[in-house]
Amino acid sequence: MLTAKQLWNKRFRDPVVLDCQARQTLHFGIRFCKHMIDTPIEQALRAATYIQDIGCGTGELAFLVSGYFNKCILGFDHSEVAIDWANSHYHTSLCQYEVWDFVEMKRLPYHCDVAIVSHVLEHFADPYSHIDRFLDRCKQLIIIVPYNDTEIATNRPEGGIKHKFIFTKEVLARYNIVCEFHYQTEMARRYHQWVVMIE
């Protein structure tokens, strides 16, 4: 069976799929930037010195956040194909991308003030172990996931293409929720998105 890294690399080697992924990530990033204005999430990102985008995929969200706040941000992903795309389209002096297998590593490579993990955690049956590892290296964690998405595939590989976990407010009750908001996306499926910042 292919690992999550191998699955995503195989998927992204299809240029049509890679382009679709980039457009979807851009759409999600624009929506996030629009809805986080005048929230504690905007305040945290504005105050941060160092920001990370965990599982950045093709890099659009990191690029948008870096440009909006004029901040240094590191995006990393376990897919070399996605990071090659990100570096060829969005690499700047403030916005950097690296290949790191965050699924396999025991801890994040660097400390940061704020980390963003967008549309990643729903791909794991146990997102808590990842959240706890991320919080060990950042002061605040911004999570972006589909809210109450019941179309899950529990028999698929961990970290693979399909969703494996249903996010509702109750599942993050163990953490200190600083801020949260919801919005709709309009690509492919109309996902009800949940953005929550925890510490």
Q: What is the 3D shape?
A: globular
CATH C-level name: Alpha Beta
CATH superfamily: Vaccinia Virus protein VP39
In order across it, which strands form the biggest sheet? 3-2-1-4-5-7-6
> Would you count the extended β strands for me?
7
Total DSSP helices: 6
| CATH 2nd-level architecture | 3-Layer(aba) Sandwich
As residue ranges, the low-confidence spans are none
Helix content: 25-40%
Q: What's the Cα radius of gyration?
A: 15 Å
N to C succession of SSEs: HHHEHEHEEHEEE
Structural class: alpha/beta
What is the terminal separation in angstroms? 35 Å
Q: Give the domain tally.
A: 1
How do the strands and helices of this protein lay out in sequence?
Layout lengths: L3 H9 L2 H21 L4 H8 L2 E5 L5 H10 L2 E6 L2 H11 L4 E5 L12 E7 L8 H9 L2 E9 L30 E8 L7 E7 L1
Parallel strand pairs: 1-2, 1-4, 2-3, 4-5
Antiparallel strand pairs: 5-7, 6-7
Helix pairs in contact: 2-4
